[in-house]
Amino acid sequence: MIETAVILAAGMGSRIRERTGYNPKGFLQLDEIPLIEHSISKMLTAGIKKIFIGTGFMKEAYEKLAYKYEQIQCVYNPDFETTGSMYTLYRLKDVINEDFLLVESDLIYERSALSILMNHGYKDVILSSKLTDSGDEVLIEIDEKHHLVNMSKAKADLMNISGELVGITKLSYSTFQKICSHIELLPNFHKMDYENGIVAIADQIPFYVHQENDLVWCEVDDEGHWTRAVQFIYPLIKARENVLKSINRTILLNPGPATTTDTVKYAQVVEDICPREEEFGRVMEFISNELTEFVGNLEEYTTVLFGGSGTAAVESILSSVIDDQAILIINNGAYGKRMCKIADVYGLEFFEYASPVDEAIDLSSLEQFINNVPTKLSHLAVVHCETSTGLLNNLEAVGELCQKYKLSMIVDAMSSFAAIPIDMNKMNISYLAASSNKNLQGMAGVSFVIADKAQLEKTKQYKQRNVYLNLFTQYHYFKLTNQMQFTPPVQTLYALKQAILETKWEGIQSRYKRYTKSWETLIEGVSRLGLKHLVDKNSHSRIITSIIEPSQPTYDFNEMHDYFYRNGFTIYPGKVNTLQTFRIANIGDISYLDIERFIRLLERYLEWLREGNKHETI
Ligand SMILES: *Cc1c(COP(=O)(O)O)cnc(C)c1O
Q: Per the database record, which ranges form the MobA-like NTP transferase domain (predicted)?
């Protein structure tokens, strides 16, 4: 059992001196508690009984802490200005007499980081995470046994990179002694950092590198790190450590609302706040900016938030941004059709370009259609992922046509946003609609429009057809006040903020990779069971799949739905009029393992159906 920890805290922290003032880095505060005390309290909770702090620069601050915590003992490195962290550690050589955790003083981390190492079977373990690209990171190279080969800040020093040094390491007493007696003979001994000390004997002693990709942590070396820590890392850690009781997990295979994390669910439980308070305005401003930055830059684009389901955003665009010219709407599924209906109800002059529901758009025929429209077109609207079939429309290609014919492109990206990478600028998108509850993995109730600001500003003079959904007034009001015009869904927005942090943490590319793996598992599974799906792999979104229903005459969708529902899975009916289909979405906080379970259940169901054992319930 590990009961000792060492915190290396002698450094000068010169790259963040302005912010730290007369204190060492470890005294930067989060929620009015110094980083070092966050760390100490995690250690004590984990069962650490003795904490040595290797001090140097401004040692008094740490010595004061030793009065507050009986577990702390400071060991001073008087040469801190000219020595590296290895030397600070070396000075503890005669003080420590057991295995210990070695922790850097400027780390913010989840408590699980400690328990992973404390419970680890190996005696010398280096904790490694996925790459954070935060700048100044120490990269790790390992061999096929997960043993350390090298660590360095310079990529060129390493043959391959397996991960990044977190700065929390378990060292056994004997290894520590060996490091000390090995390095004291080296010429550059005083200048070494502790990771160089470890690398120096890595060919003699196996250090196990434990890779933990989902560990939330960061180091604070400069202002950029600090901003990231305050806005992103610390809130994520707090949310994760705040989950009091995990909530029964159901697997939603409908195309949103999707399965959410417990941290998103709990983010809704907050003190009551009047949404007109500045504090809440800042929450919405953060959400608006972060959503924009998923697909564009803040100079050219802006996100306008509404309380409402996703359709509100689509309706807002269509009823707000078209003046007296005409719009072309591509209809290749239920959501394209819905846009036609909205255009019709608002009395817009629109031209419907109908395209097959299960095939890519024929671009030359679309171009011909554009050329043949009898009046002047100003806009073109298209759905990105047609959720009714899973068909993915080619936005780049449609965007190029829009550029050629000087049309503003409107995109319903409801079921692609935050999974399939989108670049508004590159794709030539003027207005994009999406919502909180699909790939963002938030709660239902917020819909939003991401708009090209210059174009949106021009709509100011247009004759107004709407009130609640007017895009320009909502945008303008928010710009002046950080407020929505009408009551926002307060708790849903807190959940959305958390969902955004988690989306950023995972990364949109990685999220799409995870979804893709689930989708491949699905396609492979249903094909093996003899079922066919509608849309060809090449134009498939890998988000939602329309599957042709089993042909047994006794098959009944509702019965199958209820069977899955009893087993914790929710499936969805089809939405193609001419074909008998049901739909499976693979979005949300689920993985291919859930899809494997789904396939096993489906297999059992199809067997039951084939055997015709209708009298026996399944
Ligand atoms: C989900 C979805 C919508 C919006 O549906 P709501 O029920 O209003 O949330 C719009 N377009 C597409 C393509 C969708 O997938």
A: 5-120
